[in-house]
Amino acid sequence: MHEIIFIQDLAIVMVISAVTMVICQRLRLPVVLGYILAGLLIGPHTPPYSLVTDLDSIHTLSALGVIFLLFSIGLEFSFSQLAKVGAVSFIAATLEIILMIAIGFFIGRLIGWNEMNSLFLGAILSISSTTIIAKILMEKKKLNEPYAQVILGILVVEDLWAIVIIAILSGVATSGTLTLQDVSMSMVKVFAFVTAILFVGFLIVPRVLRYIERFQISEMMVVVVLGLCLGASLLAAKVGFSIALGAFLIGAVIAETKQVQGIVGKMEPIRDMFTAIFFVSVGMLIDPMVIKQYAWPILIITVITILGKVLSCSLATFVAGYDSKIALRVGLGLAQIGEFSFIIAQLGRDTEVTSSYLYPIAVSVSAITTVSTPFLMNNSDAIVDRMKYFTPRPLVTFAGLYPSWVSRIGGSAVSARKRLLIFRGIRRHLPQLLFYAICIMGVYLLANKFVDTFPIGKKLYWAAVSAVIFPFFIGFAYWLDKMFWEGIILNVVKSKVEITRAKAAGELFHNASRFAVIFITGLLFLFLA
Fold first, then answer.
1. pTM for the structure as a whole
2. Which listed site, 184, 214, 241, 281, has its alpha carbon 20 to 30 Å from 131?
């Protein structure tokens, strides 16, 4: 009887998915939207009743969809390509995660949530959906575009950081504290796992595939490849990592073998079936009543997520050395949250350190941002052109010059003498930066320690603390400007015209840094008081 129910549910999923997919194709909409709409129509939250009864089995099959989709992405994303964007991806992903955790925490505190809810919200907003973005890029056949390579590189690094974040939050939820030992151990575990998979994979997998290829039996190759894919995913899950991480890594290993082209063709039908089930299961999680009940928090968090992701990812990619057009397209492509956000929200709910409403809000925000992502990516060129039209001229100048300066610093265009000047400029300003940073942290920690012992009001107390910290922020921004422009940029530019343009753009940078100081100081008072 259970088998009949399962087949019935699977048949309903595939038939409704096929219908919605055809409708989306006729309307020139992304197929992903059709799958999510199908999930909403047949899910448990759509009246008059749920068409699918065995939800656990569907969600189990959706896990296979994650595995096979990420495995296919690994097959397309070779390590030679990863090496080109590896440093950029690490810098961009790390900066983006830090910024989004801070933004999420501040938004949570602004709408009145406690510190634990706000911390989990920041973590939820920090990780983009590898599965959703990968599917859209594959649909558009854009995997080999420069911006797509950066996006995929950032997603790989984000998945690694997600493991660290989950491990840290697990420690926070259990003990109520965050220790440096927890962070260090999580990072060591991630590095050790990735290194072990790649080392063993490159040692064994090419030999195994060469041996299997001798038999000239297509079925045998498919079975062996599926065994490697599921085995790597299982190993990742057993040691506490994401199944998607194991699938991606083993796919990237196979991508370096001579048999990869034949394997890609054999895996496509399997991938398409199970990824369809995954996106349908995402649609099943959408509860219209929850969206109605928490409409304002969901709307605020959704808007902040999209804007924050576009800003943080674009800024991080730009800082890492890519031009503004690619950086903005990367930001538009990463403007959503997904499967890791569910895991983080579920962790908070299971350990009972977050409120019950956080999980449905996370699911709703994920669903809405998932729907918006295809439109942002499909219209990225038009959005980029429109943003350039409204961007101030000095900022356009800076955006045009900065990537070339970064490439010169890292390339052979900078002479040995100028490299020495750059190093000396950084070394000259670094002690002052460290001094101001230590003063800022020292004042904050000391103030936080004695906040409960002062008889004056809390708002007045933190206003006084903010006033004390403000000059140190100004000093930090001033010396950062000095190091960045005098220590680096002015030692890289070549002509007098470029120096003049650099100084004009620099004025905008200086003013922006001063505004950031005032803004950050205001936030400190707002959220501490």
1. 0.65
2. 184
Under 8 Å between Cβ of 165 and 126: yes
Contact 169, 341 (CB under 8 A): no
In degrees, to the nearest 5, what angle opens at C-alpha 307 toward C-alphas 301 and 311? Answer: 135
User: CA-to-CA distance for 120 and 104, rounded, in angstroms?
Assistant: 8
pLDDT tens per residue across all 529 residues of the chain: 677 888 888 888 889 888 988 888 787 776 777 887 888 888 887 766 667 877 788 878 888 887 887 788 778 765 665 566 566 777 778 888 888 888 888 888 888 888 788 888 888 888 887 777 877 787 777 777 778 878 888 887 787 777 677 767 766 666 665 555 666 666 677 778 888 888 888 899 999 999 998 888 888 999 999 999 999 989 888 887 777 778 888 888 898 888 888 888 888 888 888 888 887 887 787 778 877 888 888 888 888 888 888 888 887 777 766 777 778 888 888 888 876 777 777 777 767 778 877 877 887 888 788 778 877 877 777 777 776 666 666 555 555 555 655 555 554 444 555 555 555 556 666 677 677 777 777 777 777 766 666 666 667 777 777 777 777 777 777 666 666 665 555 555 555 555 555 555 555 555 666 666 666 666 655 555 5
Instruction: Give Dmax over CA atoms of the chain in angstroms.
Output: 83
Start-to-end C-alpha separation, the chain: 60
Find where tokens 């699938």 sit.
247
491 Cβ neighbours under 8 A, 6+ residues apart: 414, 418, 421, 422, 425
Let me know the angle formed at the C-alpha of 442 by 119 and 98, rounded to the nearest 5 degrees: 30
CA 446 to chain centre: 34
Residue in the structure block whose two tokens are 């290194």 = 195
Quote the CA–CA distance of 306 and 333 in Å, as a whole number.
10
CA distances from 14 to 9, 93, 377 (A): 9, 36, 27
* Rounded CA separation 427/354 (Å): 44
- Helix pair angle (146-175, 180-213), 10° resolution: 130
Q: Tell me how far apart the alpha carbons of residues 446 and 443 are, in angstroms, rounded to a whole number.
A: 5
Residue 188: other Cβ atoms inside 10 A: 11
Residue type present at position 40: L
Contacts 24+ apart (CB under 8 A), 429-438: 429/479, 429/480, 429/482, 429/483, 429/486, 429/487, 430/483, 432/475, 432/479, 433/476, 433/479, 433/480, 433/483, 436/472, 436/473, 436/475, 436/476, 436/479, 437/476
Residue 432: strand, helix, or coil: helix
Q: Output the CA torsion 384→390→392→397 (10° steps).
A: 30
Q: What is the DSSP track for 311-373? A: HHHHHHHHHTT--HHHHHHHHHHT----HHHHHHHHHHHHTT-S-TTHHHHHHHHHHHHHHHH
Please give the structure tokens belonging to residue 399: 């955006």
- Sign for the CA dihedral angle at 229, 232, 238, 242 comes to negative
